[in-house]
Amino acid sequence: MFMQLTLSGLAQGAIYALIALSLTVVYRSTTVVNFGHGDFVMAGAFLSYVLVVLGGVAFLPAGALAVVAMFVLGVLFNRGLIRPILGGPHIGLALMCIAGGYVLRGIARMVWGREVLPMPPVFDMPPIFFGSLVITGDAIVIISTVLVLLLCFFGLLALTDLGKMVQAVYQSPRGARLIGLNVDRFNDVSWGVGAALGALGGILVAPVTLLHPDLGASFLIKGFAAMTLGGFGSLGGAVLGGVLLGVGEQYAGAYLDSSLIEITAYVIIVLVLFVRPQGLLGRKAVVKV
Amino acid sequence: MRKITALFAMLAFTAAPAFAQDAGWETQGLTDDSITIGVMGPFSGNASSYSKAMVGMMAYYQKVNDDGGVHGRKLVAVQEDTACDSAKGLAAAKKLISQDQVFMLQGNSCSGVAVALRPVVEESGIPWIVAQAVSDSISVPLARNIFHGVPTGSANGRAMASFVLSKPDTKNVAIIEHSNDWAHSYSDPAKEYLKEQGITPSLELTMERGQTDATAQVLQLREAKPDFIIAALYEAETAIFLKDLKKYGLGDIPVMGTAGTDLENTLKRTGDFDTVKNYFVIHSYVDNLDGPKMKKWADMIKKYYPDEELSTFSFVSIGSAEALVSALEKIGPDLTRSKLIAALEEVRDFDTGILSDPITWTPEDHQGVKGSAVAGFVDEKPAVLKAWGQPY
């Protein structure tokens, strides 16, 4: 059972990692916590649903198209709604994110209203059995997709000039501006990447769960918990936090009480904030006066 | 003497507005040509498919209106969304009662919400017919103005456990449920029935609403090897649970579900017959959904809501709406809230032609429907069953 729980937790955690990472990308570039991000996840899932079920497009190209569309939406969201108020109070930014998310949710409700929609099975490959361990198609697809994506993402950050530019903006937007980097455009791209990564989480989870306009709310909480556990603002921490949360939920549900699964994220948020506020990989904030 | 007269005069003066308010209260929400009815339901959120029950009920109102209404009055539904959330439900109820000033309430899916509303509605005194939520604690202990128009959880829970034990050699029963009032309203009476038969559930698991994965629960079930599983889960979670059962090789274990799910939609949601072939649900109707006895109701809903996709829930509230209209007709044109409550308490063995059991409301018992059948797939087609392998 332990191995099975770990595998399932890794698959679930991979989704959380993706969502936490996408939240962190936006947070690091603009210091905005996107409280509407759950709805970007939902929108990605619904877009792929529309393309697959209504448009008859195969899942893979449909997923890619949905990711691109969500990237564009993220860029437009930043340009149209966030950038004009970026210098204002944080509460205004948070409310703008919530409002944007609710608009997406409202559109989904207008179109699909009261329906809970099933995505046709796309990971429908026969499970592989190793004794009592069952390796399912969805676990393989989710874990491998997220793994490849993370390798590309962190490879890009660590090994390329583009990555160095990203680090520069993260460390000091003003400094980056002084050396000629277009920080506004960088922020646009960050919002686009954040929206696209979140959407990918929704696209991957769509075939294993059911779609409804409120789908994103629970993923947002999981994303926050993963960010908190890994360290707020740490890209690697977000991934680590997501994976640990996914696995932790499974262990808590199986070995302690199944009712704990849903509150694991909240327990983690409370514990981390008390015991190690900077999270596992975050830096302790030092305020010099 | 003068002092006593003055005291009475003062009392009469202070009480007058109250009496006037009472007289007005009795007919609040009524005009010469309309009766406003507050219809609450989860029109949004992941339990929003339950609001199909309200749509079916409102289609019946429209049919009644097209037939001339009740003593010349049209039934006017004022719709409010609860999103299956207690806080939103409370806000909706208060709005309907205080702001919209509806004559009565009918509807409500989601027992947790209905239980939370009970004190508010009871205090208001306005008639409320609960037309989908099943928790016993909505209508017990008795509240003079609250009537249950569907089989309650205790009736359904016992029916579920009875069906489970009707399968030969069933000894090991596991239960998986949400941790809310709605789920307990099924599982508690089911456990009570099992206990009466000398069986204690081998495993009691929780799957919370909104969970997208049931691996931890399914793996525990794999170790417990139950003969039958009782699942008190909402639609979305049922589909996820059944998918995970099949995924981990437990698809052959029969699962008994609640009236909160149906076979057709569960099949649609899982997208695979193998996943639902051993799934059974409480079925409160006289026939299969596509059976001849249900056709006229399906046609009625489609007439008024052509785009509405029908499910089991579409029909569940029509029976109590029929009982309401029958009571309103008996009262005559001189309608008040008190008269309606009295008339509802006189409903006896009312055959709705849609629910499998009749509706009886008495002054002592407002839980109107006492029984239910079970539906399951037989030869890959939905069938109504009395017990394991026995047609209804």
From TrEMBL, chain B:
Cross-referenced Pfam families: Peripla_BP_6 (PF13458)
Family: Belongs to the leucine-binding protein family.
Leucine-binding protein domain ranges (all copies): 34-375
Keyword Transmembrane: no
Record-given protein name: ABC transporter substrate-binding protein
Swiss-Prot/TrEMBL keywords: Signal
CDD domains: PBP1_ABC_ligand_binding-like (cd06343)
Keyword match Signal: yes
Residues of the signal peptide: 1-20
